[in-house]
Specification:
The chain has helices spanning 3-16, 28-35, 39-51, 70-83, 88-93, 97-115, 119-136, 140-160, 173-181, 185-202, 215-218, and strands at 55-58, 62-65. The protein is mainly alpha-helical and 221 residues long. The chain folds into 2 domains: 3-67, Winged helix-like DNA-binding domain superfamily/Winged helix DNA-binding domain (Arc Repressor Mutant, subunit A, Orthogonal Bundle); 70-202, Four Helix Bundle (Hemerythrin (Met), subunit A). Strand 1 and strand 2 form a beta hairpin. It is elongated and about 55 Å long. InterPro entries: GntR_C, TF_FadR/GntR_C, Tscrpt_reg_HTH_GntR, WH-like_DNA-bd_sf, WH_DNA-bd_sf. This is GntR family transcriptional regulator. Keywords: DNA-binding, Transcription, Transcription regulation.
């Protein structure tokens, strides 16, 4: 893995796990110092993240973690509600006992994170569950789109979500797995649609304050 790729993954992970909250400024000099690389290298990584909507770069203001608007938050969830249930029949065509066990392991990890009040971990694991399920559909284009929507959903949950946005309040993923094991496409589609609509309805569309970030500590090696 190249150094640029490693830095990209570390910053992306920090954003998705909400260690870098929406709106947090990303000064090139402090990131350069934290990673021990040039500002040019940091700039390349930030530009890549900006192309993927995780970072916003403004002239004379520098980079900051994207703070999705209320309209964007609703559009992202609406897109997921439109697409993910429709992938269920294709997912079922690739479903088997090994896949069932794989996703049940993920569901258990989610539950442990939720019970341990590790909200950031829970949100990340939930995103992984959804985009891996989409990947199983075999539609690479839509799976890639869902992956990006899931990452953007993590930002949205960091900005507007509550504890009711993840976990059992929205329906546990094990319920969906039971339906997939039964081969019940209609009920699985309905479950997915209800699940995503509940997440959307749980959002509190108000901004949260920015935190002071210690980049040296966050990215210490």
């Amino acid at each position: 893995m190249s150094n640029d790729e490693n830095i990209y993954r570390q910053i992306l992970k920090a954003i998705v796990e909400h260690q870098l909250p929406p709106g947090a400024r990303l000064p090139e000099d402090r990131l350069s110092e934290a990673f021990g690389v040039s500002r040019t290298g940091i700039r390349k990584v930030l530009q890549r993240l900006a192309l993927e909507h995780f970072v916003v770069i403004e002239k004379n203001k520098g980079a900051q973690v994207n703070h999705p608007s209320k309209a964007e938050a609703l559009e992202v969830l609406d897109s997921r509600i439109l697409i993910e249930p429709q992938l269920i029949p294709a997912v079922l065509s690739h479903w088997n006992s090994a896949q069932s066990q794989h996703f049940r392991t993920m569901a258990i990890e989610e539950k442990r994170a939720e019970e341990s009040n590790q909200l950031a971990d829970s949100i990340q694991l939930t995103a992984r569950f959804h985009y891996e399920l989409a990947t199983l559909s075999g539609n690479k284009v839509l799976a890639s789109f869902i992956e990006q929507l899931c990452y953007r959903s993590s930002l949205i949950l960091a900005a507007y979500g509550t504890r009711g946005s993840v976990g059992c309040d929205c329906g546990e993923h094990s319920e969906l797995l039971d339906l997939l094991d039964q081969g019940n496409a209609d009920k699985a589609q309905n479950w997915m649609s209800h699940h995503l609509k509940h997440i959307k309805s749980s959002l509190i569309l108000e901004s949260k304050s920015e935190e002071n970030i210690d980049f040296q500590q966050l990215f210490s090696r």
